[in-house]
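TOKENISE THE FOLD
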Amino acid sequence: MSMLTPPGMGGQYRITGDKYPRMRRNRGRRRIVLAVAASVTALGLAGWGTLQLIDVFTGGGDKASAAGSAPGCKTSPSPSASPVKALPEPGQITVNVLNATARKGLAKDTADALKKRGFKIGEVGNATKAYDKKVDGPGVVLGAKAAADAALPVLATQLAGAELKTDTRAKPAEVDLILGKTYKALTTKEDADKALTTLARPEPAPSTKKDC
């Protein structure tokens, strides 16, 4: 065997030039590495599948719980029905029309207009000294404390901007309408009727519900 023959060649190959013959890699080692990698992959897939089955049978995959709302739910208002208020009809209210201005005939004209709208008319004349020439707005609706949520707001629908006040009188169905300095006319019947409807049926109170 020549000194230039690589060890293990058994003298079968002889170097004739300046290059060694190419050595073949060991195929057995490559097969072992591929087998190990395949085994690891198979074990990983088997473990993942087992976890998925556990989630399915235990309900772990269901993120939403019926017992409670998920975090981050938004609340939105929803209307709820409001009860209809029991208010007196115009024919159940007696109105004293009193003029607190220097304009003559104002109380009578206003009383005639209210009568056409169904109100009962009581006293018609000038305001008392406590209010005469002292009402700066369009008017004052004055009545008993018991009329604060009944006859007073009903009459106030007939005069926009009227101020509501109470006194110590005993009759809740008797109300004074005191005409002030800026009074020009009653609210139009159409607008007054709308105001009466709104008074009897207030806007629905909002309630909150969760949207998830």
The CA atoms of residues 88 and 158 lie 14 Å apart. Residues 61-68 have pLDDT under 50 and may be disordered.
